[in-house]
Amino acid sequence: MRMPAIGITCYPDQGGSGVVATELGLNLARHGCEVHFITSSLPFRLRAYGENIFFHKVEMPEYPVFRNSPYTLSLATAMHDVALHHKLDILHVHYAIPHAAAAFLAREMMKPTTLKVITTLHGTDITLVGQEPSFFPITRFLIEQSDAVTTVSGFLKKETQKVFGVGDDIEVIPNFVDSRVFRPRQDDEFRNRLAPQGEKLILHASNFRKVKNVSAVVEVFELLRQDHQVRLLMVGDGPEMSEVKALVERYDLEKEVIFLGQADHLEDILPVADILLLPSLHESFGLVALEAMACAVVPVMTSVGGAGEFIIDGHNGFLRDPDDISGMAEAIGNLLNHDNQHQNMAEEARRDATMDFGASCIMRQYLDLYENLI
Ligand code: GMT
After folding, report:
1. How far is the CA of 123 from the centre of ligand 1 (A)?
2. DSSP letter at 178?
């Protein structure tokens, strides 16, 4: 059987949905599928072009009448053209708004056609954006019009069903991690630069949006530093950055908190950390926690959302309520006091992440979905 030709659309900038879409495309290409990325710019993790990988930039013409260039229509046109010229079997869109709308239009323009549309829901497209009154009906419509819908966790599937009243045929395909890229690594020089007195390193990585609850990271750190030699590494950037910096200043933590900015190669930074702290208000999955686990870094993460589907509290990480500041500080503090327990948990984390959420195992689920659909 011919391997399917797939068009992938995602947000190309930093963010979990773009990472999943890009890594999926790279893996599919390795499996022999022809993969066409149709995006507004080059996805940031698409570092290596290779066999079977193509990139189509969506052109957005300016015209004085437009207040904003109508991206969704340009994307639909690009999807249609690529699907036609490259005989795509599937348009696989990541994040419902507006990508599923563009794919719907492209498929309509192709009719009669065998082209299928798959929508993968990632989280805030359902939990925040999709529930905005102005987006609610169209999000439900697009879910119903997709030939297949996947969510990245059982939590997000339930949430989608509850909020939109859509059927049971949503498939859960979790986030995944490439364990050859994300792996334990000793980089003494880098570590010594960050923690010259042998301090333990707590790491937070996100897009610094409200939902990430980054102020809680600083609050937890402020408690921890009272009894431990620690440093906090902040990776990423986003709208909450100035508030976070103000809080760091208010607690007089400038010497202990290191802002690394956006990082394209998280796999080079994660392994130096001792703990990953992700206290989001909710997290449909929490890809960075899985990537940390693959590097043998213990995650301390929000219990609200889908994290319980890969973190077993007290076994390979910790789950705490996002406002349980003292609970998070206590869990981290205890672990930092017990090296053996820390080591065992880190090994368990690596094992669980790579055994159950390895790229090839999750890739099989996507390939089965494609094969069933076409
Ligand atoms: O977390 C973000 O704000 C980024 C967002 C995205 O769409 O890029 O991440 C969502 O998708 C990731 C990949 O599937 C999930 O691991 C994240 O949990 C999810 N974010 C939220 O649910 C807040």
Report:
1. 5
2. -
